């Protein structure tokens, strides 16, 4: 019998360590902006990676979450077989006051 596979815990970048160019690049992509907007309107830790309605496959979705983690926007943790997410709104707002409020406004 094969040993169970364990996922490595994702690396997280604190917003204090993020350059404004990195934050802006992460938020410039329409898929990532959708993820951030959906997280902003959800309870913390209530959304698994597969619960988002975005037009990309699993590998691309993983990449988008990696970019958001590297930009200090998202924190993830594993809960059983699911990886759940939260928007690091308070920490990100402290680093870049007003930026999230601007991008969360719908057109």
UniProtKB/TrEMBL annotation:
Classification via PROSITE patterns: HTH_ARSR_2 (PS50987)
Coiled coil: none
Upper lineage: Bacteria, Bacillati, Actinomycetota, Actinomycetes, Kitasatosporales
Annotated protein name in UniProt: Transcriptional regulator
GO MF annotations in UniProt: DNA binding; DNA-binding transcription factor activity
Alphabetized PANTHER family for the sequence: TRANSCRIPTIONAL REGULATOR, ARSR FAMILY, TRANSCRIPTIONAL REGULATORY PROTEIN
Keyword hit for Signal: no
Keywords for the protein's UniProt record, in alphabetical order: DNA-binding, Transcription, Transcription regulation
Family matches, as InterPro entries: ArsR-like_HTH (IPR011991), HTH_ArsR_DNA-bd_dom (IPR001845), HTH_MetalResp_TranReg (IPR051081), WH-like_DNA-bd_sf (IPR036388), WH_DNA-bd_sf (IPR036390)
Membrane-traversing stretches: none
Domain HTH arsR-type: 12-107
């Amino acid at each position: 019998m094969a040993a169970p596979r364990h996922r490595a815990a994702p690396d997280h970048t604190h917003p204090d360590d993020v350059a404004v160019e990195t934050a802006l690049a992460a938020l410039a992509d329409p898929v990532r902006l959708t993820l951030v907007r959906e997280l902003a309107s959800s309870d913390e830790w209530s959304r698994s990676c597969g619960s988002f309605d975005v037009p990309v496959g699993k590998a691309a979705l993983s990449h988008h979450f990696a970019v958001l983690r590297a930009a200090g926007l998202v924190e993830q943790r594993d809960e059983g077989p699911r990886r759940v997410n939260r928007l690091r709104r308070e920490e990100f707002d402290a680093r870049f006051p007003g930026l999230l409020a601007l991008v969360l406004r719908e057109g």
